Structure formats: structure tokens, C-alpha cells
Amino acid sequence: MKAMRTLIRCVVTLTLAAFALPGFGANSNNKTYQIDMTVLQQGSGTAPSQVQAVISNTSPSQSTSTISSIDIFVDLGWTIINSKNDPAHAIDAYESNAPTKKYAADTSQAGHIKITHLSPLKPVSITGTTLVVKFWVTMGSSGDGSWNANPYSGAQLNGNTFARNGGQNIASVATSALACNESFPVGAPVPGPAGSVYATRGLNKDGSGQTLEDAAACDAFPYFASDTTGNNVGLTQDLLHFRWDQVADSPAAFLYTIFYSSPPPSPLQVGWLDQQGNLAVNPGVDFSNVARLDAPTCIGLGSADPALPSPLGHLTNDIDDSSTTLKALFTPPLPSPFPFAIVVGTERMNVTGPGPNVFSWTVERGALMTQPAAHFENDIMMSTPLPPIPDGAPPPYVAGAQAQMCAIAGTVEYHQGDNGPVIRYSKQIIDIGDGWVLGR
Questions:
Q1: What is the pTM of this model?
Q2: Residue 254: beta bridge partners?
Q3: Are 86 and 142 in a shared domain?
Q4: Whether 56 and 130 share a structural domain
Q5: In a structure prediction context, what are the per-residue pLDDT tens digits for the chain, which is 440 residues long?
Q6: Are 204 and 217 in contact (CB under 8 A)?
Q7: HEC states along 358-410?
Q8: In the chain, how long is the greatest CA-to-CA distance?
Q9: Contacts with 123 (C-beta within 8 Å, 6 or more apart), sequence order
Q10: Per-residue DSSP letters for 111-158?
Q11: Separation between Cα atoms, residue 100 and residue 119, nearest integer Å
Q12: Could you tell me if 95 and 68 are in contact, meaning their C-beta atoms sit under 8 angstroms apart?
């Protein structure tokens, strides 16, 4: 009988454990949070930018999980302004239902904002209350910063942790806003720290926004250079994503110089498509889905060195999408030798020689797999430094199509620094496709 009672107790114990285990596992999903980032004020020139983080405790309403301390951090090497040294740009941290009750913030760890001894923060579904943190980052903190957090149940960054389950966690701070023929930083390029980027915006690659009278005129718009050099979370140090709005500002063309503390890799790898063949334009620095290839080499026009697209002249007559002769006036001197490439709108053509009449030219249409189209009198003809994608390029890149990025031979520069000679290496990229530079 005693043996039977013991057996029954064991069976009951195992049965209860079987029911308890799933419940215990589910509890690990009961502690969740959401982070939502907003850029409140874009800095201009040397001014800092203001950013806001809103933290919500998204644990289920029946949960007793509360957030009593939190560590908020960014992946890129951004610098959060220390409010002790700069009271005008102090951190403002409070709960949304009590904006006058301020919390102190610790920024002693690079890229982190740590706040302890919160109220604590209950699930937002119960109280509607969130934690709001407004702060400033320095002028050099730009690009697409991905923010995350480690919330804790304990008051001193201890206790149980929470898992992120949503939110818009990327804050995009513009590196600069450039019109045609403008550069940032202003002035001649000088060697900066490893990973620094000097950018020049050229004319629109298709001649749009430009007139015969003023080919250099076009409105400024922002770009975002996300650089993983010196990042805060252990990302690979070899990535730059140079991004702008590919809907509103897709005709743009940029030349940027990347500085290195040691020789850049050879070959340098770039990418402008994802593995599915779409433009890899999403903000952030997750390059796992970016399709890469060895950077094609930029081409010059005739004996000239490679350069950003520039006006070569204009059409003097309309043409349809099949004509192999066009009438045009070239701005002297005439590009040479034949054949040379021109771009009109989004179509690339090869000018193969003079046509049958004065100021007429024989052309090959739809070069490098661009689409032939009708063009009109006074449309501007642009040069292009972009080569074909080389044979052997991995998919989804197609050999013979026009590359969207290309590289120019790098330089080695010697400068006298405060502590002796400084050697800086550089590499230049021409980019019309919102591209990625990999392998740094």
C-alpha cells in the first residue's frame, strides 16, 4: 500500500509539472517593451540635433511586470551631449503622465542613456503612461541610428529584463543638406579620422532641374551617411551606407571620399541591390541582405579623369524612341574620341560619330540596358562616369547593365599631426543609387 501511495504521488507530481512548464515558459513573453524614435530637430551646420525616445511597457495588462530602470543605446558611434557640460542641451526624461517629474540620466558610457529608480513604469495598456527621453547628439552624430534598450524590473539596472516587440527604433539624422555643386564639410577635403566621409553632390545625372541658362541650379536635400566605424555595439567596422530619398531625389549623383587609417581593401566591395534584386534603400546598417560585388572602376570622358555627371550640350530637335540620328550642340570642346557615352533623361546612348547633316550625330540607343525613349529639343545631354557591370558579377547584378556605383583610384596623404606624421588613405566613390560600401 505504501508503495502504491508513493507511485500515485509521483504521477501527480509529474502531471502538475507538465502543466506548470508551459506556463513558466509563457511568463518569459510577459515582459515586453516598445521603443519609438523621433528626430525632433535636425541640426544645421555645426548645430546638434534633438532626438526623442518613447519607451512603452507592452507587457500584457494582466501582467505585474514593471520597468524600474532602463539602458537606452544606439548602434552607431554617436555622441550624446552630456548635459552637465552643456546645460542648454540637457536631457529631459519624464513619464508622460507626470512631465514635471524629471529623472536624472547617466551618459558616462558612450552611446548610452541610463535611467534608474523609475516610478516604476506599468504596462501602457493599464495606465497609458510611457517614458519620454529627449536628448541631443553632436553634429558628427548622423545617419540612420538604430536604438534599442535594456529595461529592467529592478531599480538599479538589475532584475528581470524585457524583450522588444515592436516600435520604430531608427532615428535618421541628416549628415548635411546639399544643393548641386556643394560639399560637406565645407572647404577642401582634408584627412579626417578613419571612417570620416567628405561628400560632394554633383548635378542631377539626367539633367533634370537644370536649364541651359543655369545648369548648376538645383534645390538642396538631405543625405544620410551611416558609418559603423567606432560603433557602440560591436558591429563590424567595415560598412558605410550612403542614403538619400530615392523617390523624391532619385536623379541625384554624389562623389564621396572615405578616409582610412590603413590601406583600404582591394578590391573594395559595394552594393546597391538586395538579394532579391530590389534597391537596398532601407535605413539602418543591417547589410546581411545587401548583394555585394567588387566595385566597378569609374570611367572618364576621353582623356579626362572620372568625374560626376556634367552637361555636354543639348538637343536641337525632338527625337523618337527609335531614331539613330540626333541633332545636338555640344559645349566645346567636343568629347572625343568616338564612341563616347551621353545620358539624356534616363536613357544612355553611345555617340559613334558624325551624322549625315551639320550638327547631327549617329547614336546607339538604349546603351547598357537602359530604355530608349522620346526626347525633346533643349533636353540636356549629360556625361556619365558609370561603367557596365563586369562579367562574372554575382546575381542579382546583371553583367552589361549600367552600374549604379563605381570607385576611383585612392590616395595616400601624409600630414603633420599634433603628435607627429599622420598617414591617411582614402577611396572615392561615385554613387547614383543609394549605395553601400563594404569591406572596409
A1: 0.86
A2: 201, 431
A3: yes
A4: yes
A5: 444 444 444 444 434 343 333 333 334 468 999 999 999 999 976 789 999 999 999 999 988 899 999 999 999 999 999 877 788 899 999 999 999 999 999 999 999 999 999 999 999 999 999 999 999 999 889 999 999 999 999 999 999 999 999 999 999 999 999 998 899 988 756 666 666 789 999 988 988 776 666 656 688 899 999 998 889 998 887 789 999 988 777 889 999 998 887 888 888 899 999 999 999 988 887 788 899 999 999 999 877 889 999 999 999 999 999 999 999 999 888 888 999 999 999 999 999 999 999 999 999 999 999 999 999 999 999 999 999 999 999 999 999 999 999 999 777 776 666 777 778 888 899 999 889 998 65
A6: no
A7: CCEEEEECCHHHCCCCCECCCCEEECCCCCECCCCCCCCCCCCCECCEEEEEE
A8: 116
A9: 57, 58, 59, 60, 61, 63, 65, 66
A10: TEEEE-S-S-BPPHHHH---EEEEEEE-TT--EEEEEEEEEESSTTS-
A11: 13
A12: no
**Rounded to the nearest 5°, which phi and psi values hold at 147?**
-105, 140
The residue out of 143, 173, 203 marking a domain boundary is 173
- Distance CA(387)–CA(404), nearest Å, equals 9
- Sequence letter at residue 300: G
Asked if residue 139 is part of any domain, the answer here is: yes
| Residues shown for the chain | 440
Chain centre to alpha carbon of residue 111: 18
**With contact defined as beta carbons under 8 Å apart, do 41 and 47 qualify?**
no
Asked if residue 322 and residue 297 are part of one domain, the reply reads no
Q: Does 22 reside within a domain?
A: no
Work out whether the CA dihedral 282, 283, 288, 292 comes out positive or negative.
positive
> What is the amino acid identity at position 188?
A
Whether 202 and 269 share a structural domain? yes
Q: In 170-249, where do the E strands start and end?
A: 170-173, 176-178, 183-184, 197-201, 221-227, 239-243
The answer to whether residue 57 is domain-embedded is yes
Do 155 and 296 belong together in one domain? no
Where in the sequence is the domain holding 347, given as residue range(s)?
311-382
| b/e per residue 418-429 (b: at least 16 CB within 10 A) | eeeeeebbbbbb
Cα separation, 387 vs 381, in Å, equals 17
Do 415 and 279 belong together in one domain?
Answer: yes
